[in-house]
Amino acid sequence: MAINNTISLMSSNNISLKVSGAILVILVTLSGCATTAITEHAPNKDDPYENVNRVMYGFNDKLDDYIAAPVSKVYNKITPQFARTGIFNFFSNLKNINVVVNDALQAKFSQSVSDTGRFLINTTLGLGGFVDVATDTGLELNTEDFDQTLAVWGVPNGSYLVLPVIGPTTLRGIPGTAFDVAANPSTYLGMPIQLVSLLNARATAEGSLKFIDEAALDPYVFTRESFLQWRKNLVTDGKSDASLDFGDDLDELNSGDKKIATKSESIRKDVSKDNHKLELSAPLQ
Fold first, then answer.
1. 104, exposed or middle or buried, with CB in 10 Å at 0-12, 13-18, 19+?
2. DSSP codes joined into one string, the chain
C-alpha cells in the first residue's frame, strides 16, 4: 500500500511508505473485511488516472520493499516496545496542535477545548507527550486535518492520485497536506528526528502490510477503496455507512472460502493487537 518516508517518503501525516495504507487496513479488518476479489479493472470515476497511479503505486511499493521495510525491521529489533510506544505518543501529541487548529476552522469549538486539554495534559503530566495520560482521563484522540476542513468548507474531493514517495491522496488532499505539514511542529525538528518518527510508524505497521500482501488479490484497488472510504468516514465524523462499502471494483467476499476467512481472521487479530494505537485515514494523513 501507500507510503511516505524521509528515507524516501513522507505523507500528509508524516507516516512512512505503506503506513497510510496500513492504517486503512486496520479499519477494514476491524470491520470484518477479510479479502478482496477482483476480476477486472473496470473504469472508476474517482480514479481517472488509474494507469499512471498504478505505475506510481508500484514504484512506491518497491521503494518500501527495498529501503523502508529492511530498515524498519532492524529498528524493530533494536528498539524495545515501550520506546516505540513513547515515540508514537510524542509525535501524536505534537500532531494535536494540527487537530486543535482544524477544530477551530471547522467551528468545532467544544471539541477544540477538549483537544487543547488533551495536548496540555500529555505535554505536562505525560512527560512531553511520551506518555498518553489524557486518554485515561477520558479525553480521546480526535483526528482532524485540513483536508477535512476543506471538505467542510465545500471543496470537492477531486480525483484519486498516487504520488511518488507520498502515496495515496486526492486533489483536495494535496493543499490539505501542505497546510498540515506546515502547521505540525515536528516538521521543524530536523531530519534525524523526523526519520525516527517515520521509522517508528513504518515498524508499527508491519502486521497490517503483511495482511495486504497476503489477503488482497489486487492491493492497488484495496488501497484505493480503503483510502477513499476512510477519508469519507473522517469528513462525515463516522456518520457515513457503518459497513465499509468498497464500491463496484470490489466483489463480495466468498463466504465459502473458509481457508481464506480463517487465515484473514488470524491476521486481523495480530494486526489489531500490534497496531491498537495506530490511526488508519492517516493518510496518510
1. middle
2. -----SSS---TTS--TTHHHHHHHHHHHHTT---BB-------TT-TTHHHHHHHHHHHHHHIIIIIHHHHHHHHHHS-HHHHHHHHHHHHHHHHHHHHHHHHHTT-HHHHHHHHHHHHHHHHTTTTTTS--GGGGT-------HHHHHHHTT-----EEEETTTEEEETTHHHHHHHHHHH-GGGGS-HHHHHHHHHHHHHHTHHHHHHHHHHBSSHHHHHHHHHHHHHHHHHTTT-S-SSPP--TTSBPP-TT-HHHHHHHHHHHHHHHHHTTT--------
The predicted model scores a pTM of 0.71
> pLDDT tens string for the chain (285 positions)?
333 333 233 333 334 444 444 444 444 444 444 344 444 566 789 999 999 999 999 999 999 999 999 999 999 999 999 999 999 999 999 999 999 999 999 999 999 999 999 999 999 999 999 999 999 999 999 999 999 999 999 999 999 999 998 999 999 999 999 999 999 998 998 888 888 998 898 888 877 777 777 777 899 999 999 999 999 999 998 886 544 444 444 443 344 444 444 444 444 444 444 443 444 333 334
Residue with cell 486539554: 117
For residue 57, give the nearest of 161, 178, 159 by alpha carbon.
Answer: 161
Query: How many angstroms separate the CA atoms of 260 and 264, rounded?
Result: 6
The span from the first CA to the last CA of the chain, in angstroms, equals: 14
